[in-house]
Specification:
CATH architecture of the largest domain: 3-Layer(aba) Sandwich
Largest sheet: 4 strands, parallel
Shape: globular
Number of strands: 8
Number of domains: 2
CATH topology of the largest domain: Rossmann fold
Distance between the termini: 18 Å
Strand content: 5-15%
Structural class: alpha/beta
Number of helices: 14
Length: about 400
């Protein structure tokens, strides 16, 4: 049996919640915000402002504004509309890890408004430290600093990488993008030229990847040595299998990575998308379709790293290029997120937990020693329960482990 299907790792009973907490990364809203924002993102790493200025050019080129905040506002509004349409009376609150509205302010506002139990929905679908446990650490530290431990409970929905609502927009978008690239090649007189689909996601340190999905009590192995890698590969196969076979006949695909930001001597997941494009061109590929499989919305790492840098690499190599959209506020995605909320609520409860890969449905509570924080122990909320659980040990009890 898949560990994700182990009943001990699922929440047995739904609960009543006062509000939904939409948790995201955050981004600058103007030129003056860029360096302060990057300081927030890199806090504790000792990176000087001179280096931050070097990496700020993609924000500067966009007026210092990250698309992510506007996208979160749109997602919040879409969630509110879907909840209202179903008669679910839960307000949607919004808090960011790295920019206004900051998480502590959102939590304090929730408590002041009389809320005592929140259900958190993050804009990260896959399993690794930065996309799951770090959010719960931020909540745990905020509750501690606000002295709200035991007063305000925050639970979290499962990682939803293979939920139909998240995957469906990628299936639709991949089919459209492949058709566009093939049309471009046909117009150029090479209708049968090789086309390759690159499923792209954020690169992370190899050590963090290997810790994702790991259990000290039940050693597990994943394709690619990581739950993070295995989840992306599994979803990529689902997408390709779901697209009309005639549309993707003879089209290869692979998983690539982008947006690496670590020191050169620290191993991160590879290959980089631009390196992969160059190798494919050398091997005879004439068309590239990029599917940003690791991302929920078209934020800066999609707009810059894919629409700018990857597109430029293809142009320089004479390759046809198209990029599939992210889920954004796609109706199926929004409906799927509300379904995830209903999995955990007493009111409007949905007992069935759909999953499109054999890895899912992913668990609500993670096994011990999973996605540990190698940078130092921090308190983190448990993923479920009627009270806030705080642990300082990053390899602590199962109820507080990351996924």
């Amino acid at each position: 049996m898949s560990p994700a299907l182990d009943a001990a790792l699922l929440v047995a009973e739904p609960a009543s919640y006062d509000a939904i907490l939409l948790a995201s990364f955050g981004g600058p809203e103007g030129q003056d915000d860029v360096i302060p924002f990057l300081r927030n993102v890199t806090r504790g790493r000792g990176i000087p402002d001179e280096r931050l200025e070097e990496v700020s050019h993609h924000y500067r080129a966009n007026g210092g504004i990250s698309p992510i905040n506007a996208q979160n506002r749109a997602l919040k509004a879409a969630l509110e509309a879907e909840l209202a349409a179903r008669g679910i009376e839960l307000p949607v609150l919004w808090g960011n890890r790295n920019w206004d509205p900051y998480m502590p302010e959102t939590l304090q506002g929730a408590y002041d408004a009389g809320h005592r139990r929140l259900l958190m929905l993050t804009t990260s679908a896959y399993s690794c430290y930065s996309s799951d446990r770090q959010y719960r650490e931020d909540i745990g530290m905020a509750l501690t600093s606000l002295e709200l431990d035991g007063k305000l409970a925050v639970d979290k929905v499962r990682q939803y990488f293979d939920h139909p609502g998240f995957v469906a927009p990628f299936i639709e978008g991949t089919a459209v993008s492949v058709a566009r690239v093939r049309a471009a090649l046909a117009a150029a007189g090479t209708p049968d030229a090789p086309v390759h689909v690159l499923f792209s996601t954020h690169s992370i340190p190899t050590r963090d990847a290997e810790a994702a999905g790991r259990s000290a009590d039940e050693p597990r192995t994943f394709e690619g040595g990581s739950a993070y890698v295995a989840q992306h590969l599994a979803v990529a196969r689902v997408v390709m299998d779901a697209v009309d076979p005639s549309a993707v006949e003879g089209t290869d695909f692979s998983l690539v990575y982008q947006s690496r930001s670590g020191a050169p001597h620290v191993p991160w997941l590879e290959p980089d998308i631009n390196d992969a494009i160059a190798e494919l061109a050398e091997a005879g590929t004439k068309g590239i379709v990029v599917v940003p499989l690791g991302f929920v919305s078209d934020h800066m790492e999609v707009v810059w790293d894919l629409d700018t840098e990857a597109a430029q690499t293809c142009a320089e190599l004479g390759l046809a290029f198209d990029r599939a959209p992210t889920p954004g506020t796609h109706p199926k995605f929004v409906a799927g997120l509300v379904d995830l909320i209903c999995e955990r609520t007493v009111e409007h409860h949905i007992a069935k937990r759909p999953a499109l890969t054999e890895l899912g449905p992913w668990y609500d509570t993670a096994p011990a020693n999973c996605s540990e924080n190698f940078r130092g122990a921090k308190p983190a909320i448990a993923e479920h329960g009627s009270t806030v659980g705080l642990v300082a040990d990053p390899v602590g009890a199962a109820a507080a482990g990351g996924s």
